[in-house]
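Risk register update: the risk of archive-format incompatibility is retired. Evidence:
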Amino acid sequence: MWKKYFMTCVCLGVTMAAGGCQSTELEQRSFPLAAGIDLREEGEQKNLVVSFDFPDLAQISEKGRTTETAMGLSLEGMDMYHVEKSYENNTNRLLDYNHMKAVILGEGLLKDKEQLRTLLLSWEQREESARNTSLFVGAGSAAEILSLTEETEGSMGNYLEEMLESQKDFKQNKIATVGSLMNQWHNQNELLLIPVLTEGGGRPLITGYEAMVNFEHRGIITVEEAMESFLCQNLLEKFTCETVKNQVVEITDLRVSKTITKEGDLPVVIVSVSGKGKQKTGQISSVSEQYQLEKKIEKQLQADLMETGEKFQQEYGMDLTNSYVALGGHNRELYQKYKNDPDAYNQEVQQIFQVDISLMNWE
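Archived output:
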């Protein structure tokens, strides 16, 4: 009986000690909401410059005023391990990424495959680094974007999270993430579009998209071009189309299907887009005008997709429709031909676009 009593006390003591350690450990941790990572080159030496965005704890509670963690802090090191060690040595705190909302990469880092691969490996080996953290590119530098806190009323991490949540064009969970970039690194078989942030009026604005194929930087495309690619990939809830006469139609209830066939020795991808259109500008007054506008919108959208598709292939070696990822499920013969050469597929695939739009409102 005494032995049983002794073991019970020991267990209680261990439990209480563990609880105390956990509480102390939380007080010794810092929780960045966003991180901006730039690459600095000095001769042959390449270092990471990491800027952290911390919550303003003083705004959350009076108790937070006792926590001396700067809202913005930049550190430099040869890799993330040395950056984190520098933070620990200077603050006596550990970095905890469980509340990270956004990662911003500098353009220089994104173009350096070796440094980017090393960074992703360090993230992959760290269990607490969430793969669903939103990913951005900072035009110029990531640090400059994180510094734009005066107009964003505090944390850049919270601001970027709210920015993404306010976008109603995309289907749920279709934003570029750290996990998307990791998949690109491992699989190297798809088109990844990462939003580019630029300063505008003291705030970060999405002004384009960084295009990556096979883990290689291919260039920055416009927002409009990115939206056409997202449309072909069935990633949008709605899409806006404008005719030459400035008639704007918003297309909802989108249905997008993709078929990959073979014509001669070349692959052919057929993308069919259908939806319901609603006029945002202009007026029509008859069934005849409605029919004419429907055909005009269909023809315009087909032409726009074809033009952008050709530009992607000729200038960037990319497939607007991102069809390579689905090749194995559509045509095994083509998959065997191109399975080790996605670049050849992206440059050779022929694209056909079919559009069917029904207008909902005319009075």
